[in-house]
Amino acid sequence: MTTRMQALYGLALILIGGIKIWLHMGSVSVLSLPLCSGKTLTVSAGQMSLFEQAHCWGCYVFGAGLVLVGVAAFGAYAQRRTVAAQTD
Fold it and tell me: Do residues 54 and 25 lie in contact, with contact meaning Cβ atoms separated by under 8 Å?
């Protein structure tokens, strides 16, 4: 995979993760968790911290996108440095 494709995939993951976090923060006021006993635990999301409100699978996708863009940037930098060393 080329560094350009890695960067594009990373940017797509950042966009998807950011949208999911934004939608999650705007829509959840009460969190319902099904328990093993068949009952449901309801937690008011208004009393949670910002991190607890924003945390969903979007966080992991956003983080993976950041890592992928970082790897692509490092690969592009390393490739540029090898070309510069050959021309010296």
Answer: yes
**pLDDT, average across residues 15-38:** 82
Q: How far apart are CA 13 and CA 64, in angstroms?
A: 7
Largest CA distance in the chain: 70
Rounded Cα–Cα distance for residues 16 and 88 (Å): 42
> What is residue 88's three-state secondary structure?
coil
CA distance 39 to 76: 52
Cα separations in angstroms, 28 against 18, 38, 53, 87: 16, 22, 8, 57
Distance CA(88)–CA(54), nearest Å, equals: 50
Q: How do residues 32-83 score in pLDDT, each as one tens digit? A: 788 888 888 887 766 666 666 667 788 899 999 999 999 999 988 888 776 6
* The model's pTM: 0.65
